[in-house]
Amino acid sequence: MDSTPSPSSSSPFDLVSSALGRYIPRGGAAAAAGPADAQGDRTAPRRVPDNPAVGRQEQILGALNLDRDLRITRCNLDAPVFAGLDAVAGSPFVDLLPPRDVPTVTRRLRQVLDTGEAHVARIQRLRRGDGSELVVSLSILPAAVPQEGLTVSVIAMARRLHLYAAETAIGTSLDIGETAQSLAESLRAWGDVAAVDLDFAVWTGEGVTGQAQGRIRLRRAALVPDRAWPDGYVTPGDDLPGDASRLLAQAVRRDDAAPQAIVIPDREAVERVLGSPRVMRALVPGDRSAGVACIPLVLEGAPPVVLGVAEVWRRADCPFRDSELFDLQELVARTAHHIDLARQHQREHTQVLALQRRLLPRTGGDTVEIASVYHPATPDSAGVGGDWVNSFPLPDGRTALVVGDVVGHGLGAAATMGQLSMEARALLSAGLAPDEVLEHLDETVTLLDDAESGLTAGYSALGSTCCIALYDPVSHHVALSSAGHLPPVLVYPDGHAGPLMVRPHPGLGAEFALREPFDVHTFDAPPGSLLALYTDGLVEDPAVSIDEGIGRLADAVSTVHPWDSLQQAARHVVSALAPVRQRDDVTLLLARMIGYRKGDTATWRLPARDDAPARARAQVCALLRQWRTRDGTRDTVLLLVSELVTNAVRFATGPITVRLIRAGHGLLCEVGDTGNGRPRLGPGGLLDDGGRGLQIVHRLTTRWGVRWTDTGKVVWAEVAR
To answer: Among residues 254, 263, 271, which one has the least CA distance to residue 291?
Structure first.
C-alpha cells in the first residue's frame, strides 16, 4: 500500500496515511524489515538495529477507515509493530478488541458517528491473532464530507505506554494467583510465552527472608498463553522439578551481589545451561523457543528478598535488546510488591480461615442433628470476616445454638470473634440464660473497643451481632435472645416456614442511650422442626430487600425433606442463595430437632415438705425398675435424688420439681426449686455437717451443675448407666 497519497487528499484517513511517510524515512526500519514483516509474518527473520537512533525511527502510527456498520474499508497497518493484527477489509473493527472492551469502544464509535465530534487519545489494547495484546493510543475521527464513516488512528507508544497500562492492571486483586497471572499477561508483550514461578513459601503465604536455606522449591503461578502444552511442561499449580528450581534460583541469585536478570540468547545456550532433557521438557515451552529472559521478583531490603522468577521466552528471530531488558526489569520491579501484598493477604486469609473452621460445630448431641456451612469471602475482598456459628450440648441436656457476626475483616475481627465465641460457650455451660450471656458479651465488646495492644489494637467491634438459641429436648421449646442479629428461620414439621418474630436490638456495644435490655423469646419446636441460623452474607442482595432475602431463605429451607441428608441440604441452600462472588462471609447452621422420646423422661412436682425426699425416692424407684436399670445404678440415683431434694426442702420456699431423663450416655437427674442460693462445694470432709450433701453428689456423679430460671434454680447431675 502506498503510504504517500497526493497532496490534494483531504480525508482523515489520507492525512494520517500521509503522515506515515514522515515517521519513517524511505529505506529505514520498515524497508529493513522486509516484505515478510509487512505482511504480518512474525516467523521471518527480523534484523534488530544496533544503532539506537534507528530504533527511534520505527513507525508507530497506523490508520483504519470504517463504514457506518463499523466494518473496515481501508487500513494502513503495515508497520512491524502492528504485525499480527488481523485488519482485513470487510471484517468488523471490534474483532481487533478484547471482548471486555467491545461494548465501551462500540459506544464511542457510534457516538462519533452521531455527533461528528472526535474522540481523541484513548488508551486501548488491540488483540493480535495469536492472543497477545498491543497497547495503543486510539483516536476516532469523523470522515470528511461527503464521505461517510470513521477514521481510526492508532499510535503504538512502544513499551512506555505498555508499562503504564500493565502497572495499572497489576495489583487490582489481592489473590496471589490472579496477581501473578496479570503480571504474566503484561510480560507477554515482550515475547511469545511468559511464566511466573514463585517460591513455595510465598505461594502459601509464609514468606521468605534473605537467602533461601536448604532445598529451593518453586511453583508455577501463571503462564500465558492458555493453550495445550506438551507432556512434561510445567503448567500453573505444578511444582517445578528440583533441578529446574535450583537452576532458576541460581541464575538470578548472586552470593556476592544483588539478584539480577539474565538472558540466555539461543537454543544452544539454553540446552547447555539446562542440560537435563527432563529440565528442558519442564521449562522450554516448545521447539521454536530459542531464548529466554529470567527476571527475579525482588523485594528491596538488606538483604533483598527473592520472591520468585518471571520468564519471557522468544523465538530466534527476535533477540532481546538492552532497552527491552530494562523495561522488563522495571515492570517486574514495580509489581513485585503487589506479589508480596497478595502473599500477606493470603497468609492472613489462611490464619483467619483456620480459626473460623476450628469454631465450626462438630456434633449436636443425641437430641439435635446439626449441619453447618461456612464459605469465606472471595480472596480478593477485604479479607475473611468475623462470622461464626457454634453448636454444643450443654451439661444439663439442652443444646446451645449460637451465631454471630463481628464487625470488620481480618485478624482483628478474627481475634474478637474467637474471644466472643469462647466466652459465650463458657457462660452457657455455666448455666446462664441467653439474655445474661448477651449482657456479658455486650460488656466485652465495649472493653475490646478500648484495647490498645494485641491483635485488636486499632480495631472496633462496636455493632457486632449475636443470636443464642437454647433447645430443651424434653419440653421441645427454644429459648432465644438476639443482639441485633437477623431472625432465625423455623420450619415446622408440616412444612410451614418463616422467620421467628424477634424484637430488633441495636447490637453489641451500642451507645448507652441506645442500649436496651435483651429479651428472651420462647418458641415451640416439635420433633422434626428445622431451625436455620445464618449471617447476613447469605441473604443480602443489592437487588432485593433484606426481608425478601430472608423470605427466599425460608422458601429454600422449607424444601428440605425430613429424610434428606442435613449436611447436603445445607450445601444446597447455600449454593442456591449465596452470590457467586462473595464480598462477605456466608454462614449457615441447620438444626433438626429430635428431642427425647416421651417414655425416656418423667417429671414430678412435690411440695417443699419433710416427706418430699421419701416421696421422690418412691417415684424414682418405680420408674427405674420400669426402665430395668441395674441395681448399682438404681441405688446411686436414689441416693442422689434424696440428697438433692433434701437440700431443696431446706432452702426453698415453694414447690419442688424432680425430672429424670434417660439419655444414651447415662441418667440425668434434675431438681428445681424457688431458692436463689447457689450450692457450692466446700473443702469440708464427709463427716462435716455443712455441705455433706454436695460432697456426696460430687462423688456419685460424672458431673453436676446449676442453671438459673425465672423462678429459681435447677440443680442437675449426671450418672453413668
So the answer is: 263
| Grid-cell match 506438551, residue found | 230
Distance, in Å, from the CA atom of 512 to the CA atom of 446, rounded to the nearest integer, reads 11
pLDDT > 90: percent of the chain: 14
Q: Phi/psi class of residue 433: alpha, beta or left (left: φ > 0; alpha: ψ in -120 to 50)?
A: beta
CA–CA dist 657, 648 (Å, integer):
10
Cβ-Cβ contacts under 8 Å for 491 (sequence gap 6 or more) = 497, 529, 530, 531, 532, 554, 557, 558, 560
How close are the terminal C-alpha atoms of the chain, in Å?
Answer: 99
pTM above 0.70, yes or no: no
Q: How many CB atoms lie within 10 A of CB 601?
A: 19
Give the C-alpha separation, 32 to 20, whole Å: 16
Per-residue CA distances from 171 to 126, 179, 182, 297 (Å): 22, 6, 8, 14
Strands (E), 426-554: 465-472, 477-483, 489-491, 497-499, 521-524, 530-534
The band of 367, judged by pLDDT with boundaries at 50, 70 and 90, is confident
Least confident span in 54-58, 240-244, 467-471, 534-538: 54-58
For residue 594, what is its C-alpha cell? 429430635
Antiparallel, parallel or unpaired: β 193-199 and 305-314 = antiparallel
In sign, the C-alpha dihedral spanning 329, 333, 335, 339 is positive
Q: Lowest-confidence range among 128-132, 480-484, 684-688?
A: 684-688
C-alpha cell at position 717 = 447431675
Residue 531's pLDDT is 95
* Cα(418)–Cα(350) distance, integer angstroms: 15
Cα–Cα distance, 422 to 415 (Å, whole number)? 11
* Range of lowest pLDDT (330-339, 531-540, 563-572): 330-339
**Whole-Å CA distances, 18 to 23, 57, 88, 116:** 9, 16, 20, 23
Q: What is the grid cell recorded at 446?
A: 465495649
Contact 83, 6 (CB under 8 A): no
